[in-house]
Design brief:
Number of helices: 6
Number of domains: 1
Structural class: mainly alpha
Strand content: under 5%
Largest sheet: none
Number of strands: 0
């Protein structure tokens, strides 16, 4: 799936079949379903899961918690809009499953 297809799927009521937990969390976040996105990511491990988790707490406005998760992801809080970071994370996750 391309980023364009993933982004376009936000017009649907259900996420595309077969998404990883990371991508489903980003899809739910893109739909404005923060609680569901957080529930999906909460128990996942790894740097990418920490990155998604950080993004969600940044979106929530909890910068302290976001910074904790960015550190776990070996990243720093970006100086871009939430929309731009959503696109960056989603594109990176999609690319990682294509390689």
């Amino acid at each position: 799936m391309t980023f364009e297809e993933f982004n376009a799927s936000l017009s649907e009521t259900e996420p595309p079949a077969g998404l990883s937990g990371l991508l489903e969390a980003m899809w739910q976040a893109g739909k404005g379903n923060w609680d569901l996105a957080h529930d999906l990511i909460q128990d996942l491990d790894g740097a990418n899961a920490a990155w998604v988790h950080a993004y969600l707490h940044r979106e929530e406005g909890d910068r302290s918690n976001a910074n904790y998760w960015y550190r776990r992801a070996n990243r720093s809080m970006p100086d871009v809009s939430l929309e731009e970071e959503w696109a960056q994370i989603s594109a990176a996750l999609l690319e990682s499953i294509q390689n």
